[in-house]
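One example copied in:
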Amino acid sequence: MNETAPSRLARAGGVLQTSGMTLRTLLKRAIPVALVLALSACGFHLRSALVLPPDLGPVRVVSVDRYSPLAESLAQALTRAGAEPATEHTTDATVLDLMAEQWGDRPISLDELGRAQEYSLRYAVTFELRRPDGTTIVPRQTIELARDYVSNPVQAIGTEGEREILQGEMRREMVASVLRRLDAVARRATAAAELTPPPTSDTTTP
């Protein structure tokens, strides 16, 4: 059976449209992978250049959330950076205390029916670093991150999957942000120590 020119064009158009959808799907799946690889690369660079506070000793990461993924990731990152992890038998440990960890969604765009179709995902962590005697190495401070994502009011399952991916990326970025704060304090302490003149001995004889 011979096909007419419009039929051939229609079928070709269908093929082109299917290819376009495939390309968009591949790009959508590739972008999160590319972001993960980029964050991993940044993490490797940070670990190689990280300066820890002097006389840090064994370090224990604690959190208000006993099963916090952030606390686990920070403990692993500090160990890779050269810190000694505290064990359950360590009595005198430096404590990285994650005092608060909060997630929140704020709608920033509505569709024609008044339904939220775009959100700003916010992530805030409050922490401090203390010596075994309770004195503060890094004073209490809060880091806040925010990322926008699109929410489909009709397909909630896809939206939840995108949000979970975004949460993982923001946790990795939070780990890097906390380590940068520790690094900044350590570098200031090192610079101050280098500028402090050594004590002079009194050699005056009576």
